[in-house]
Amino acid sequence: MPHNILAAVKEAISGYSDPYLGMDLFSADAIECLEVTGGKVKLDVLLKYPSDFLKDGIAQMLKVAIENVADIDDADVSVNWGVKSHKAHENLENIKNVKNIIAVASGKGGVGKSTTSVNLALALARDGARVGVLDADIYGPSLGMLMGVPSDTRPETVQEKFFKPVEALGLQTMSMAYLITENTPVVWRGPMVSGALQQLITQTVWDDLDYLIIDMPPGTGDIQLTLSQKIPVSASVVVTTPQDIALLDAKKGIEMFNKVNIPVLGVIENMSMHICGNCGHLEHIFGEGGAERIAQEFGTDILGSLPLSKYIREQSDAGMPVVADGDGESEVAQMYINTARTMAAKLSRLSAQTIPDIQISDD
């Protein structure tokens, strides 16, 4: 087959740019096999982030593009995905059965970090990943309420020293709330809290997780340092709101992760705009442009912008987060889903250390 036909096939494939990776499949090292034999093409693609809801559509688009090439009669296109393990500090021992740990943090409280963590986890699971969520806010755990777990729920124990995660909405979850009553405050000093966090992570029997999302408490104190020094975190995400005071604290959060050499995948701007339920008018009541300035200043990305929404609040209070509500097809749910895909795709690029062999046959 003439070389120009092979080049035309490669050009057709390169015409598709992955919206979450922001590049073509060759640049993303996602082409596992490309064979051109006579008028037939075989293409195998492996994406490195959860793509159950995307792969069939991508395969169809690539098939049409390739079959539009002159002298190509048929294209057999396969698109699959798999998640690789990545950690920021190679000298830390892996958590058993956990491929990636993503810390979701904020510089201050009240920015919707827990709600964001839970919906990101649900979005990853919706796309096919096995996901766990750990509530690392020892003083004010809220994971159980957000996911509709009854307040008297207690985790099963294994060999009297390990916990089985509590299954909720298709996620594996663990929280201090499962170990105390809702009216019992945790009155501990910093070292005790740090020790409790380590135990919750390492003594939970996680079951084959692609991602463990850790909902961090606000601030840059003992728990954050324990996490960065003792736990093999893969990367972090910083949640903020548009107010100047929140943005100031978000900068501190990014600086903290930079100092302990944990990659910051990006910033999520929560409550970025309000949409009037009566007239649909959009208003940036807390200001606008702040997350863009932070991302530019620290050389990171905005993973997503989420609205100030009564629907998000109502569903969270009801223990049915928006991504889990119905089929996750609401506009707000889709915002979380796109944010989670962008986050996972960016993490996959951190893990891209070797370029796979591409088998190209030009018979």
Summarize this structure as a short list of keywords or feature phrases.
globular, 363 residues, 2 domains, eight-stranded mixed beta sheet, 10 helices, alpha/beta, four-stranded mixed beta sheet, GMP Synthetase, Chain A, domain 3, Rossmann fold
Strand order of the largest sheet: 10-11-7-12-6-13-14-17
Distance between the termini: 6 Å
Q: And the CATH topology of the largest domain?
A: Rossmann fold
Please summarize the sheet with the most strands.
Answer: 8 strands, mixed
Question: CATH H-level name of the largest domain... which superfamily?
Answer: P-loop containing nucleotide triphosphate hydrolases
Q: In the CATH hierarchy, what is the class of the largest domain? A: Alpha Beta
Strand content: 15-25%
CA-based gyration radius: 22 Å
* SS element count, helices: 10
The secondary-structure class comes to: alpha/beta
What's the helix-strand series?
HEEEEHEEHEHEEEEHEHEHEEEHEHHE
Overall geometry comes to globular
Overview of the structural elements:
By secondary structure, the protein is an alpha/beta fold. It folds into two domains: 91 residues, Fe-S cluster assembly (FSCA) (GMP Synthetase, Chain A, domain 3), CATH 3.30.300; 228 residues, P-loop containing nucleotide triphosphate hydrolases (Rossmann fold, 3-Layer(aba) Sandwich). 33% of the residues lie in helices and 23% in strands. It has ten helices and 18 strands. An eight-stranded mixed sheet has the order 10-11-7-12-6-13-14-17, with helices on both faces. A four-stranded mixed sheet has the order 5-4-3-18, covered by helices on one side. The longest helix has 20 residues.
